[in-house]
């Protein structure tokens, strides 16, 4: 479910000190304006060694200076994009993924981060990446914006993965809310991955999933009658099918874990796959 309480009253952006991302800031600023929320830009400095002591080494001070410069650049960018948007900054100590998770879970309606090389699984799965741990643990939706995306020019369509699970219901709720705010459409995709079966049984299974999809959508079409909706049931691998659907989408929305998730994993296998195969921003909903 998405956060809407008074305590979750901002859009949070994780800033990379190496390179301030205009696509990330543009996406976050537009979202803040649509929701009538302020923007907070957060940058964290990982500990140099012992986290129990204040680190005042030259390396630490250099990182702080770099972080302050990156935040100043980010603020200037936001003010160019959205001059009237309230924006604040914060520079904290700690591991970036953990700091972002705590701040997002406590204060944010959603959190936005970027990745320059999402097509490379080694970056996504590296120990230093914030993307997977943040998407897996934050208590609010996490938006991952790919650096190569021209997000402002995408058609008004959000793709949402549906599989009948509770997390996919949360994804549907977010997708409809977001589509209503943007004046966009929702394309709901239920991907069925099963062994080859007889044609009659195959058709019956597809028909049953189509019925379940229509049932799931009906809840949100009644609440958001202004949102155009299409739904389809496809056979194949969920990551492959959703990645194909994302090629000209505004964003792809998925629940943190669906029926395809592995037992014990806090982030489903479909989300893992989409983080380095989707052609648009990926929104993970807890």
Automatic annotation (TrEMBL):
Domain of life, source organism: Bacteria
SUPFAM superfamilies in alphabetical order: Adenine nucleotide alpha hydrolases-like
Keyword tags: ATP-binding, Nucleotide-binding
Secretion signal, residue range per the UniProt entry: none
Positions of the UspA domain: 10-146, 157-286
Pfam families in UniProt: Usp
GO MF term set: ATP binding
Gene3D superfamilies: HUPs
Similarity annotation: Belongs to the universal stress protein A family.
PANTHER family cross-referenced by the UniProt entry: STRESS RESPONSE PROTEIN NHAX, UNIVERSAL STRESS PROTEIN RV2623
Protein name per Swiss-Prot or TrEMBL: Universal stress protein
């Amino acid at each position: 479910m998405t956060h809407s309480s008074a305590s979750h009253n901002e859009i949070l952006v994780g800033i990379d000190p190496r390179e301030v991302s205009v696509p990330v800031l543009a996406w976050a600023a537009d979202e803040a304006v649509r929701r009538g929320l302020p923007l907070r830009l957060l940058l964290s400095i990982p500990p140099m060694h012992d986290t129990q002591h204040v680190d005042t080494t030259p390396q630490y001070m250099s990182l702080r200076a770099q972080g302050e410069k990156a935040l100043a650049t980010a603020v200037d960018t936001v003010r160019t994009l959205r001059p009237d948007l309230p924006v604040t900054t914060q520079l904290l100590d700690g591991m970036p993924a953990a700091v972002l998770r705590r701040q997002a879970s406590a204060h944010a309606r959603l959190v936005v981060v970027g990745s320059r090389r999402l097509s490379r699984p080694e970056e996504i799965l590296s120990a230093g990446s914030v993307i997977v741990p943040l998407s897996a643990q934050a208590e609010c939706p996490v938006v991952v914006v790919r650096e190569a995306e021209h997000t402002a020019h995408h058609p008004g369509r959000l793709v949402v993965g549906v599989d009948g699970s509770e997390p996919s219901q949360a994804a549907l709720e977010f997708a409809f809310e977001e589509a209503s705010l943007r004046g966009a459409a929702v394309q709901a995709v239920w991907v069925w991955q099963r062994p080859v079966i007889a044609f009659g049984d195959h058709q019956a299974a597809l028909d049953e999933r189509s019925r379940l999809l229509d049932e799931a959508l009906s809840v949100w079409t009644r609440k958001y009658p202004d949102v155009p909706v299409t739904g389809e049931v496809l056979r194949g691998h969920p990551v492959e099918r959703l990645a194909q659907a994302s090629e000209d989408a505004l964003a792809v929305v998925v629940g943190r874990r669906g029926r395809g998730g592995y037992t014990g994993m806090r982030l489903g296998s479909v989300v893992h796959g989409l983080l380095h195969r989707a052609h648009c921003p990926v929104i993970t909903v807890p």
